[in-house]
Amino acid sequence: MSAGYWLGVDLGGTKILSGLFDDDLKLLARSKQPTSAEGGPTGVFGRIVQGVDAVVREANIDPGQIRGMGIGIPGQIDLGTTRVKFAPNLDWRDVDLKPLMPAAWRWPLVVENDVRMGTYGEFAHGAAQGAKNVLGVFVGTGVGGGLILNGELYSGFNGNAGEIGHLVVHWRQGTDLEAIAGRKHMMKRAKDILDDAPKRVRKEWKGIDLGTVRSSQLAEYYQKDDPIAVQLVDDAARALGAALGGVVNFLSPEVIVIGGGVTGALGDSFIERIWEIAQRYTLPGAANGVKCVSASLGDDSGIIGCAAYAKSHSPLRAAEVA
Question: What is the pLDDT of residue 320?
Answer without folding.
Answer: 47
